[in-house]
């Protein structure tokens, strides 16, 4: 399978450096070992492997460990050498990886969940292991003692992903219902703070900007939302650039770029230094707010005027409810996060200038149907995996720095 890229915008593009193949077994997760030419993978064959680049430029496994069940989530901490694997039946395995990455030792098992573990997050600052799974549970363990500290069971749908801010001790958990649960953790207690609601599809990925206190969420509804947590203003900016589920979002703090990868196989690079406007709320009305034509559920007005009701649409710039006749214009709106053409009312369309259509977002098509992406910021590299038996390693230094 040739790995090809079709550049949509920008002169530079990711360069394929290497690939690993597991001979037919799907790779569920993979992570870089920072500052090393090494990778950890979880395979459908119940294996966890540590791959090291040899002198011939190819990766070969230095560790092959067979687990009792399939691992689905993977977290690695370079400072401690700890590897955490969330299993299909609900347990979490803690391993210690030696400094020479040649030995992987099982340290402890956590009986954390009753169904598949989808997210694990280890905090070395507090020696906490956070996890979530298909049992709709959030669990919280101490890695020094192995004991359970607490949990949360108010989610209405299976939980999919986690993020944690060590400074504020806020934990963020996404679920398949499209909600993001926010908790405040202390030494022995968990306090629910709020539930962020904005997506119409399941949350597939979360990433946290520790410097600016922003939370990024990628969803099955094809959108990304930037939640301003630190500003405490409740603002949420939407990004629309994918035509499929957004599987991964990853922030590169040194270049202020957000990378997203989706079901459409598009790698999208968003410039986070650009000021964007919050998406307007969609107004609710029984008639077009431009021409007063009744919408098809407004039976009284339809009967009184002896006319057929029309379908409701919304202008993406002002948010007003309008009919097809009053919203027959389309345009891109990069400042509102819309990179594809969207519906506009005639009044808003006339206010858009050519400079308002200029985009700072770059698109690249990766011919690799992956569901997992990770960036090694120290080396400017990216790996993709998840839908087949291949892990691809890319050099992304130039294209991340192109607009810096």
Automatic annotation (TrEMBL):
Keyword vocabulary terms for this entry: Metal-binding, Repeat, WD repeat, Zinc, Zinc-finger
The WD repeat ranges on this chain: 196-229, 239-272
What GO cellular component is one of the record's annotations? Answer: early endosome
Spell out the molecular function terms from Gene Ontology. Answer: zinc ion binding
Q: Is the keyword Metal-binding in the record?
A: yes
Looking at the record, the residues that make up the FYVE-type domain are 282-353
InterPro entries documented for this protein = WD40/YVTN_repeat-like_dom_sf, WD40_repeat_CS, WD40_repeat_dom_sf, WD40_rpt, WDFY1/WDFY2, Znf_FYVE, Znf_FYVE-rel, Znf_FYVE_PHD
**Superkingdom:** Eukaryota
Entry annotated with the keyword Translocase: no
Spell out the protein name for this chain: FYVE-type domain-containing protein
